[in-house]
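Quick one, tokens below:
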């Protein structure tokens, strides 16, 4: 028998998938991260070039490891030995067949909200890679766009700044100070209202709490 939280996630996801499709995204719901990885892998033909940004979700789910274990051209910035090589991989990833990511938040009516430090992930969402696959835990769904932006700025950003050991006010206090510090990771804020061309961005909602 499903728990109340599982039932809530499934019901909300059903509505959200419909709203995402109306915005021309390709959208799916999987109850577990394991199922989400299988779905994502089914969307990526063998031999494809695949890149990703700094998402915790795609790593925790096991998707990046599955790609390393498979027959794919993996562009993994985490394997860079120098900052220069990392930057080169960031640029190479913008020409990949598939780019993997998560979102910092998503509104209940289907608007994606993302913030970034240098903008490589947001650039890939906007233009470049032929396909984008997003894995998003239902814990990242917010009531509306304003709530989604607040989640991104006041929760996701401080946690990620701590993860990257950044020297930012939010890393010291746990909440956004709307800073302009040199290591600020909220330099770009992107709202993705619709998907064009239709189906380029594929969103897999996960009925578990995963990622920040």
């Amino acid at each position: 028998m499903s728990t109340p939280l599982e039932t809530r996630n499934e019901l909300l996801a059903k509505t959200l998938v419909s709203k995402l499709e109306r915005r021309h995204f390709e959208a799916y719901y999987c109850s577990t991260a394991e199922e989400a990885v299988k779905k994502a892998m089914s969307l990526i033909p063998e031999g494809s070039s695949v890149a990703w940004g700094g998402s915790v979700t795609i790593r925790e789910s096991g998707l990046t490891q599955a790609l390393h274990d498979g027959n794919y051209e993996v562009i993994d910035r985490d394997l860079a030995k120098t900052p220069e090589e990392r930057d080169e991989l960031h640029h190479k990833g913008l020409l990949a067949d598939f780019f993997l990511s998560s979102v910092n938040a998503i509104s209940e009516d289907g608007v994606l909200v993302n913030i970034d430090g240098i903008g490589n992930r947001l650039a890939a969402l906007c233009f470049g890679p032929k396909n984008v696959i997003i894995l998003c835990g239902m814990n990242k769904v917010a009531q509306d766009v304003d709530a989604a932006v607040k989640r991104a700025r006041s929760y996701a950003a401080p946690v990620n700044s701590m993860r990257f050991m950044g020297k930012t006010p939010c890393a010291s206090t746990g909440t956004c100070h709307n800073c302009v510090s040199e290591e600020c990771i909220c330099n770009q804020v992107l709202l993705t209202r619709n998907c064009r061309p239709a189906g380029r961005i594929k969103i897999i909602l996960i009925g578990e709490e995963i990622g920040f």
